[in-house]
Amino acid sequence: MNIYIADKQDITRAGLTYIIESSTQTSYKYIEDKTELIEALKQDDDAVIILDYTLFDINDAEELIILSDRFLRTHWLLFSEDLSLDFIKKLIGSRNTFSIVLKDSPLAEIRESITFAMQKHRYICQRTTEMLFAPEPQHEEKVKLTKTETEVLIDIALGMTTKEIAEKRFSSFHTINTHRKNIFRKLGVNNVHEATKYALRAGLVDSAEYYI
């Protein structure tokens, strides 16, 4: 069985490499994008994918579920900084080939999640479990973005990268990346595709302008 690390952060790759090499005898490979991932699974889908969904080029939960339906022997270990509750519910409700562990989980949990995934058993980390069993809010809170966050969201929806937005606003990459994380958290979304859909629904971006 192969392990594919679908995560573009060097520090995360280094950490996962250490865990895999110290805990298993399984081979692993870094995957750069969705196309490379699909080609690898076409060759052999008896694999574990350690996926940072928020940074990878998979659009939404539906696309991920389609991939899991296509490659039935593959187990998906979602390994991200944060995931929305709706996203988590969609995945774990679709099939049992999805496991979830957050990047701020204790090392013991991360090790355990990889072991479970290799055995094709579902694993849900403690913080995600607490999210799933938390009582539903009685009233839906209105999303409140600051003026700067709204402007950054518009730029994101228009296809600008974090670096381009930073240059446009004469800000640091770190500052814009922090705004981006705050926007995603407030909107309850996980990636650019989902944030763009929100901006279109909210009328922040004209659909004609978006499709140019």
Structure commentary:
- By secondary structure, the protein is α/β, with parallel strands linked by helices.
- The protein has helices spanning 10-23, 34-43, 61-70, 85-94, 107-118, 126-133, 147-157, 162-169, 173-187, 192-201, 207-210, and strands at residues 2-6, 28-30, 47-51, 75-80, 98-102.
- It folds into 2 domains: 2-133, 3-Layer(aba) Sandwich (Rossmann fold), CATH 3.40.50; 147-210, Winged helix-like DNA-binding domain superfamily/Winged helix DNA-binding domain (Arc Repressor Mutant, subunit A).
- It has 11 helices and 5 strands.
- Strand 1, helix 1 (10-23) and strand 2 form a beta-alpha-beta unit.
- Helix 3 (61-70) runs parallel beside helix 4 and helix 8 (162-169) packs across helix 9 (173-187).
- The longest helix is centred in the last third of the chain and has 15 residues, at 173-187.
- The N and C termini lie far apart (44 Å).
- 28% of the residues are buried.
Here the CATH topology of the largest domain equals Rossmann fold
Strand order of the largest sheet: 2-1-3-4-5
- Shape, please? globular
Question: How many discrete structural domains?
Answer: 2
Largest sheet: 5 strands, parallel
Just give the CATH class of the largest domain.
Alpha Beta
Give the overall average pLDDT. 89
Question: End-to-end distance, in Å?
Answer: 44 Å
